[in-house]
Structure formats: structure tokens, C-alpha cells
Amino acid sequence: MKELKYVITDPQGVHARPAGMLVKAVKGFESEIQMIKDGRAVNCKGVMGVMSLGVKKGEEVTLTFNGADEDAAMEAIGKFMQENL
Questions:
Q1: Alpha carbon of 7 to those of 27, 28, 31, 70: distances in Å?
Q2: Whether the predicted pLDDT of 16 surpasses 90
Q3: Res. 15 pLDDT band, cuts 50 70 90
Q4: Which terminal CB of the chain, N or C, has fewer other CB atoms within 10 Å?
Q5: Containing domain of residue 75, as a range?
Q6: How far apart are CA 24 and CA 55, in angstroms?
């Protein structure tokens, strides 16, 4: 299992558009990918789950990657987060 911590820089936090883009990016991987905030974990393959965390600018989230392609997933999603959130 791999883990990535990221502080949200988007002024609007994790809102509908980037949440939908994240879900689309995550669905390309076999690995189970979760986003964790304040001890609450959600599956990143569902937009409602991601948005339900209510992540705002300046807050830290932890992304976990568990599966056969976890290394590639962590690299790609880490880049996605930097470019979009």
C-alpha cells in the first residue's frame, strides 16, 4: 500500500468539476484508491463520496493506493492533484 499526503490549493477546494475529473482519472486504475480527511475515508471512484468530505483550500488529505498498479496510480494521481487541486 502506498500513501500520498496533499494540501489542497484550489481556492474553491474539492468542488464538483475537479472531483469528477479525479474520479475519471482514478477509474483508469485497478488499485483501490481512497481519500481520507479527518479520519474519514471514501472510495475515489465515486464523485459523491469525494465531494462528501467537504475538503476546502488549505486542508490536507491523504490518498491511499492498494493494488497491482499502485505505483503508477500514485504517480499519475499525484500529478493530477498538483495540476488540478
A1: 22, 23, 22, 20
A2: no
A3: confident
A4: N
A5: 2-84
A6: 18
